[in-house]
Structure formats: C-alpha cells, structure tokens
Design brief:
This protein is 18% helix and 4% strand. It is mainly alpha-helical. The protein has a domain of 67 residues. Strands 1-2 form a two-stranded antiparallel ribbon. The longest helix has 14 residues. The radius of gyration is 16 Å and the shape is globular. About 15% of the residues have low confidence.
C-alpha cells in the first residue's frame, strides 16, 4: 500500500478532502508547513501517520471535522464505505458524502 501527499503542489483548496473515499484526508488544524528546504514538504506514509498521531494527541482525539477518535480504530486493508458524517454541518454545501445514491431515488 502506498499513499503520499506532495504539499509542494498543494494549494489548500480542500478538493482532496472531498474526493477521498475514506475520510482519511481532512482539512483543518494549523497550517504550519513552513520549511527551509522545499523537498521537506513531501509527506509519505510514515510522515503522514506520525503527524496525524501528533495532531490527535494535541486535540484530545478530536478530528478536524469534529468526530471523536475511536478507542479501538478499525484497521483493515479492505475498502470500507465512506461515512455519511456531515463534514460541513447539517446545512453545509454538498460534497461527495452528501450526493444521493441509487438507493436514495424514488
């Protein structure tokens, strides 16, 4: 498995948070990505996992979208369904998590 984020080309537009099918990418927190070496803005799996753990420790286990971290998080290599947690709130803008599916049609 491979995942990485190249913040060298990131514009912080948030489109990746809407496109991620597992809510693994969440906007929020501090944007403290100031670095002296441009190549340091590239994050691989280990760096992203470490930074996520540090963020959850600082925030008391609360994700940027307001969800609480589970005590025993599900760990699997199988795809899971994306939650329908309203990231933007009940009256927020539509995103992929709010689009009606085949089962929602009359």
């Amino acid at each position: 498995d491979r995942y990485e984020i190249d913040f060298r080309i990131c514009m912080y537009c948030g489109l990746c948070t809407e496109a991620c099918p597992y809510q693994a990418i969440q906007a929020g927190g501090r944007y403290d990505d100031a670095v002296y070496v441009f190549e340091d803005m590239y994050r691989d799996r280990d760096a992203l996992s470490r930074e996520a753990g540090e963020y959850l420790d600082r925030s008391g286990g609360v994700y940027p979208n307001g969800q609480q971290q589970e005590e025993n998080p599900l760990r699997t290599h199988l795809p899971t369904a994306r939650g329908r947690f309203p990231v933007a709130g009940e009256e927020g803008p539509f995103g992929p998590q709010h689009l009606p599916g085949k089962l929602d049609r009359d």
